[in-house]
Design goal:
This protein is of the alpha/beta class. It has one domain: TIM Barrel, CATH 3.20.20. It has twelve helices and 13 strands. One of its GO terms (biological process) is methylation.
Length: 371
């Protein structure tokens, strides 16, 4: 990159950014077990969470990140904890968990039992706490994309006459959720989504067709719903989306490059930025980035894996950023880990020290490339 291309960003997404979740600390894990056993009250658990969130937010600031998260420390799942609290959605103990590569999660499921809506949410208060301690840093909130309710929920019979009515309700519910987070002070919101990565996978699209779903139609419906959700967001609120191929105990679900969804993702979604996993061959090459034609769309390259602890070489990361810059303006590029470190409370198979080393490497490389 030439000198006249170097420009640090002072609004989200940032040159050095992060997806959101952090490894749950031993104290958090112990307190959650004590709460489940009835040994702690909800208030006592929340106090432990507050103290541990304070600690990791201070750590994020010290590392040099401009956006801080609460590490999703109050959640067991990156998606179910949010979706279960929507009007018309119910969580339940399923017969089995989500199947990953050679591994499955603990059992859990959600079902739509009534018309979907938004009427407040516990995570609004969670965000307010983060905002309070963020200080001069940007408080980043992460929630599952609306696509995930359709992708993961079963539908009670007779609730919806057709798909279009369901997706319209879903888009309206998320629009209300976005407005509520904005009212609470949120200016940086991320939608986490595995559905788009599944639409890149031949194996997964074959399974969708076996369920009677058409991947091409799903692309259109998901894009329409996301755009409906963000249509009236205020100009000073940035909304990004993270595309994930599965992240549980360092394993994964989907493989396949972004080509099958590239035009819809890069040209059809009215969001401000995309966090793209690019830490392994399963994500394919950078060629689909040629479809990035909006000059205001930021692409956050997930070049640092959260699935294992070995620290990536700074030079290797810089070379890959240069490769991506062949297809998209380098001024539209940012850097982050490829996913969170603990999409579920179990966490990935690396240490806390390795986690922080990786986030430091993000900041170090970003400053070297763009500042």
């Amino acid at each position: 990159m030439t000198d006249n291309q170097h420009q640090w960003r002072h609004e989200p997404p940032f040159r050095a950014d992060q997806v959101g979740s952090l490894l749950r600390t031993p104290r958090i894990k112990e307190a959650r077990q004590q709460r489940a056993a009835g040994e702690l009250t909800a208030e006592q658990l929340r106090q432990v969470e507050n103290e541990e969130i304070d600690r990791v937010v201070a750590k994020q600031k010290a590392i040099g990140l401009q956006a801080v998260t609460d590490g999703e420390f109050r959640r067991a799942w990156w998606h179910y904890d949010f979706l279960e609290q929507l009007v018309g959605v119910q969580g339940y103990d399923a017969d089995s968990g989500i199947q990953f590569h050679n591994m499955a999660t603990k059992s859990r499921g959600i079902r739509v039992v009534d018309r979907v809506d938004f009427a407040g949410h516990p995570m609004i208060e969670d965000f307010k706490y983060l905002k309070q301690i963020a200080g001069d840093h940007v408080a980043k909130m992460t929630i599952p994309s609306p696509s995930m309710l359709h992708f993961r929920a079963t539908m009670a019979e007779g609730v919806y006459p057709d798909q279009e009515t369901f997706f319209n309700d879903l888009g309206q519910a998320y629009a209300k959720a976005i407005a509520a987070f904005y009212e609470a002070g949120c200016r940086y919101l991320q939608l986490d989504d595995t559905a788009w990565a599944y639409l890149c996978s031949t194996e997964q699209t074959d399974q969708l067709r076996a369920r009677g779903l058409q991947p091409e139609r799903l692309q259109a419906l998901y894009a329409q719903t996301i755009n409906q959700a963000v249509e009236h967001k205020p100009d000073d609120m940035k909304i990004t989306m993270h595309i994930c191929r599965g992240n549980f105990r360092s394993t994964w679900i989907a493989s396949g490059g972004y080509e099958p969804v590239a035009e819809t993702l890069f040209q059809g979604l009215k969001i401000d930025g995309l966090f793209l996993e690019y830490d392994s061959d399963r994500a394919g090459g950078f060629e689909p980035l040629r479809f990035v034609q909006r000059p205001d769309l930021e692409i956050v390259l997930g070049l640092i894996t959260t699935k294992e602890g070995t620290l990536e070489s700074a030079d290797d990361i810089k070379r890959r950023i240069d490769e991506a810059a062949r297809y998209v303006n380098p001024e539209q590029l940012c850097l982050s880990p490829q996913c969170g470190f603990a999409s579920t409370e179990e966490g990935n198979l690396l240490t806390e020290d390795e986690q922080w080393d990786k986030l430091r490497r993000v900041v170090e490389v970003a400053h070297a490339v763009w500042e």
